[in-house]
């Protein structure tokens, strides 16, 4: 597999031989008005971003937070756009660019349908099997586990997750959890062109609210859990939850698989408008009795730093296997993925035989409780978790596989949901022996102020705790390694797979996984060679 080595913008992803669509037909299907002559003009693609535009494509101009996309119509024309698709206000702004303009009432709202028509990726088109996963935590893990098991049974796969996009073995670093609708449909068309048979897609609440998966009918939708997060985008937890529910309607998915380990799972089952199968892990569920009544029940057999062994039992039979990451919640994610594959039509015995042959699930989960240390010295796990619930589950998992002390290293996002910071700090300090607070993505907030809030929250929860504060993270991980030894563990939560930090709008090259590896090496501990892109100069 090829890996993009630098934190640059992702490549433009388009089918090599896109269908050519007549602009006049597009207008007849979607327009409320037309400005300019459309006859004889064909388009080969569609995009929201001029940076992503190829000659022969249409540029969709929408109203942004601060500016209207139509202000970039001239740039689109210079780059070879054949038309502008926009609203009434945008049409007036874009007219000087001299391109034909197709006027629609709601450009973002219609983008999914437009893109599906342009690329031939709608519900009635010939596409790979499509698997969607939503929930607060675990979406990325389930998506990568789906891909891993599909690989093991010999299926050519595609993936779209927070961490990466995969196309039949090619790996591209991601920038959005779920791409915009125009990019998503182009990606599906490209995957189809490369003979991908099944695709795992991570679907955020924001993706559903912002029309990023409009025009796509998933074969199976999975639900992991719901916990405190994203209240910078939604008024409250109820609104956040409601944003996820449309995925379980017949216009979005054919079938569903729902985890009952969080209370919201039962509500999804109750509100779903499609056939639903359930999965439960009684040992970690908020309601153990409800989880035990699930169609598929998961029990934990063994936990080690290298993975978690579990047994899942349901209508098709019983399977004991291992997922290559720690924690019962990861076993629950793996079971959810396997049941989603069953609901997608894959044979149970084919899956069981592959997992037994390989000694467990073979999946690479970038930045998901990822062990970056060697066989000796402290164990160091780097994780993408950035919510109180994720902290609690992952710390508990690290604790169970650690004979010594557990050190928690974390920061908090700037310009994001600040309401969860005290809960993050409380959970972090209560689950660890040593706490180190550092910076994450400060964005346009003052990092000193963010750290002060986290330290205050931790001290309120445990006045007697050992708490340290270091900035920047490069200094924090070196200090953290110096505070622990053989048999201890460090959980660095937040950065996960990311290859940058957002500091006042500038994405600075950065890798927590590589910083941790180098800090261990500098302290004299043996470390493995990296399996991830390294956005830094080579080591001396």
Distance between the termini: 27 Å
Examine the coordinates and then state which fold CATH places here, giving the name of the CATH topology of the largest domain.
UDP-N-acetylmuramoyl-L-alanine:D-glutamate ligase
Strand order of the largest sheet: 11-10-9-12-8-13-14-15-16-17-18
Strand tally, please?
26
CATH superfamily of the largest domain, by name, is Mur-like, catalytic domain
Number of domains: 3
Structural class: alpha/beta
Topology:
Elements: E1 21-22, H1 23-30, E2 33-35, E3 42-43, E4 45-47, E5 57-61, H2 73-78, E6 83-86, H3 88-94, E7 101-103, H4 107-119, E8 129-134, H5 139-152, E9 157-160, E10 164-167, E11 170-173, H6 181-193, E12 198-202, H7 205-209, E13 218-223, H8 237-244, E14 253-259, H9 263-271, E15 276-280, H10 288-292, E16 296-304, E17 307-314, E18 317-323, H11 328-343, H12 348-358, E19 370-371, E20 379-383, H13 388-400, E21 406-410, H14 421-430, E22 434-437, H15 447-461, E23 466-469, H16 473-482, E24 489-493, E25 500-503, E26 506-509, H17 512-522
Parallel strand pairs: 4-5, 5-6, 6-7, 8-12, 8-13, 9-12, 13-14, 14-15, 15-16, 20-24, 21-22, 21-24, 22-23
Antiparallel strand pairs: 1-3, 2-7, 9-10, 10-11, 16-17, 17-18, 19-20, 25-26
Helix pairs in contact: 4-6, 5-11, 13-14, 14-15, 16-17
Domain Mur ligase C-terminal: 367-495
Main location: cytoplasm
Binding site for UDP-N-acetyl-alpha-D-muramoyl-L-alanyl-D-glutamate: 48, 50, 177-178, 204, 212
